[in-house]
Amino acid sequence: MIESMSHGIGVDIAFLLLATLAVVTAWRVFRTDSMVRASFFLLVSFIAVGVIMILLAAEYLGVAMFFMMAVEMTVMALFMVMFMMNPAGLNPMNMVHQERISIGAGVVSFLVLSAMALLAVFPDRPVSAGLDPVRSLGNEMLGDSMLIFESAGLVLLTTMIGVVVLSSHRGRYGAATEGSLPPGLESGGDPAGKPEEDEDGEDGGHHHHHH
Amino acid sequence: MIVEELVLPVLMVFFMLAAGAYTVAVLDRVIAGALGTPQTGSVWIAPLARGAWLMTQHANATEAPDWRAWRLAPALYLSLAAIGLAVVPWSGSLVATDLVTSVVLWGSVEALATVVIFLHGWSANALFALIGGYRYVALGLSYILISMFVLIGVALPAESLQFTQVVASQEELWNVIRQPLGLPLFLIVGLGMTFWGPLNLADSADLAGGTAAEISGPPRLVWDVARAAMLVAFSGVATSAFLGGWLGPWLPGPLWVAIKMLAVLLVLLLLGRLLPRLAPERCVTLMWVILLPLSFIDLVWAGVGALL
Amino acid sequence: MFPVLGVQGDKALRHLTLSPDIELVDSPRHASVLLVAGEIPADRFEPLRRVHDQLPYPFTTLWFRCEPWPHLENVTRIDDLDVLPAALVTAYHELMEGRRESSPRILLDKPPNPWEGAGDFGQGGEGMMGGVPYGRPMAMNMEDDIRDGLTLDSLTFRLGPFFFAFPPGMAAEITLQGDLVQTWKTQRAPYPQSLDPVFFAARKRLVPIAALELARARHHLYRLFHALHLAGLESASLSALRLANNLSTTSTLDGLRRYLSRSGFFRLAAIKGGELGPEQARRIGGPAARAAGLDEDLRSDDAGYRRLGFSPVCQASGDTRARWRQVLAEIDQSLQLARQAERDDVSTSEVDRIETPRGPWLEKRPEDASALLDEILPGQEWGDALATIASLDVAAVAEAPLDTQTTGESPITELSDDEGGPA
Amino acid sequence: MTLATLLLLAAALIGIGIYGALSQQSFVMLMMGLELILNGVMLAAVAFWAFSGAGAPEGQLLTIIVMAVMAIEMTMGFALVVAVFRGKQADTTESLTGLKH
Description:
Order of helices and strands of chain B: HHHHHHHHHHH
Largest sheet of chain C: 4 strands, parallel
Distance between the termini of chain B: 43 Å
CATH class of the largest domain in chain C: Mainly Alpha
Number of strands of chain B: 0
Number of helices of chain B: 11
Helix content of chain C: 25-40%
Strand order of the largest sheet of chain C: 1-2-3-4
Structural class of chain B: mainly alpha
Order of helices and strands of chain C: EHEHEEHEEEHHHHHHHHEEHHH
Distance between the termini of chain C: 23 Å
Radius of gyration of chain B: 19 Å
Number of helices of chain C: 14
Shape of chain B: globular
Number of domains of chain B: 1
Strand content of chain C: 5-15%
CATH superfamily of the largest domain in chain C: Cytochrome-c3 Hydrogenase, chain B
Number of domains of chain C: 3
Oligomer: heterotetramer
Structural class of chain C: alpha/beta
Largest sheet of chain B: none
Shape of chain C: globular
CATH topology of the largest domain in chain C: Cytochrome-c3 Hydrogenase, chain B
Number of strands of chain C: 9
Radius of gyration of chain C: 23 Å
């Protein structure tokens, strides 16, 4: 097995706590009734991983994780509230499909990956004490790997333009919704949820299956 | 070693939290009195009396709130303020946590503040609180980019993401002069992240208190203290980033920091009392259309300055 | 202290705003003392009970010129405005020192409807959504969005009749999509507002124009005070109130006007939108109509006013901003007319055609126009919508003049009293 | 805190993420599953960087790139959700049976 870096018992305890927190909150994401709560559980999981990264001396990455994920999860929670019914968890929620297969896939991938983690032999070359991780990352990003870094930036810019086009109300050929109909409540049934033909007012616009 | 690395910084942050929040309360009362709000009693005792009143009051309940999030949110906001205060250097060596990425840490405090304030509004399961939460997300997503560009601007001449280095880099010229756009933009960010005065969209009067509309008693006390402490933390960061932190003649460094922080606080509180609350829509437009390009210019300015 | 405004309660509110010991709050959750100011009509008892129960323990109530409910123990009724602040402070101190018991809750602490799990997983209704958790419909996208076509879940709720930003007594059912008002239904009209006695006197006999115009300016300043509080300009709102209370023919509006334009009230604050069409403007009448460009003012028909060279001022656009510019201009005009009229000792020449600050009073008093809000507010953001309400004087004019305790016999001496003085 | 324990944690996060991405009906919940997978990947990358990469800067760079990928994934995802929602008022995967309107 791999020799650990030299660190105190405090770091080990902290790691154990954070690891538990990360896994438990990750699990709660899919087990809570409220989607807003789910996205904030995910945020806690990310923050726990970020702190672990700081413990691993990747100071920039850990802190960057905090603010990246804080913004991402805020947006996510906002979208939840915007699009989903029941964002507040007033109703119990269980919106899953193919659950058995999914559980199987999750467990199998966990087993395979952990087997790899435990059985494979990785080289033991810890970070040298004199390394300044932030400086080395900066030099790499704006030095040898500048092309990669810049392409990532370019892709982000393209994405931004793309999503504005995708989500705007009016496309190049007229209104985005023109000619589209919501799916029926029964398969093949009448379109649901369009306000003008909404007969059963209780049901609003959503359409959900149970499995 | 434990005493030096853990106990001392924690004590320092606690002291700053308490003293800072008290200062803000007193200052705001003095300003309000000067602007014509009728008041009696001593300005020094009034904040304490208010605290005592909130402590005796019961924390109330709304119908089916998200209890954990609702009670945690004020405490989380307070701890974010504490993190902010912890990165403020009082002198070259006197700083609670001298993380090499403290500038980025402050950035994440700003981002997490959005989360916490939204959570506070959302979890009350009440109308005005929820609208306040929404509004804050719109505001938070707008100011965070401006803040990032401005902060990168001050990190450039320092060639470091560490606040102590940022202050040290201002030995010759303070950033407030070197990057003239920086401090005004950053002050607007500060008003936004503490939702104070003109940018108080989350806890505003037209929402009967917004995210705080439904809280009473000790949670309200924590929330008020946290807002005041966040204002102090922000002015500390602004001091280090733009006003040369502990640098200054004659007086010892920490005293300079305190004086500069008081000055920033005074400006923020005055702005808060003198300006009307911005309409949310206009506020977001202003941020994206005018202030964000300005922060680009500030960044380019800083970059060119660093190259020369 | 959270004020619950009854009929004519706003006068007490204004008095308390300037009392240094009392902090008025906008949410009952922030209060320790509930003040019921003025007579509450019986159909507002139910909301009052709910507000009463929202105050956090320990709390107490004070009833000002209103009969306390018999089942409440140790409540205080106050009738004199002058002793009200002191009574409030005493009640508060007694409460904090434990000498006064907290009021009990009136309603039972239970959800309005039982929780019913009907769906497969215990949820409220069919499907993942639907159902009525605790008796309220869930947020749903029932209506097309009126802004950008992205139909999101909307939120329907009722507000009032004690919401501070509404005219006292008004209640409405509102559907919001995000921050945007989707539909607005005014359910209860605001209480009729009481005008200054001088307007009632002017219906009976000829009165000096100076008194009439000062009362008019004061009425507008009170509205400005409320709107500025809503806009977050606390100090300006207080100076508007002080100006109104000490109004005389030597007062000027210049300081307040300068402060408002410098602070960016007309440019930054949420006072966009709220345009009135000519037809709508006519239904409200008064300054709101003139702000929409209608050149109608009964004062033009009055020989006394004609002698003073009166001609109505107007704005063009008819939105909230124009209404406030109009109000400022009319206050200015009123002060100027009052100065001139006092110097030349001019009186009115008509008794059947009086222009009240609320609008023209011909055969009938100006009537309630709160139903108009249903047409104007949809499509506005919440802040703009509230600012629009604040800028529109929709409440009807009450039968009796302000302060029923003084009979309208000596309006002139009454006017010289400070508004907050003994009644 | 050893490489093995870190990788176990990463494996657990990835496993939960895969379960979520496969089982959730709602688009946004599905995206949460994907994010969780990437969370595990980032942790593993940093763990390798710290314990067996001798602090090679490319290890950190990889994590940065993964973060960028997450951002892209999320923005694209939300843009598609908005587009679909405009067209069909749908927010679950089952509501989509074709690629056309």
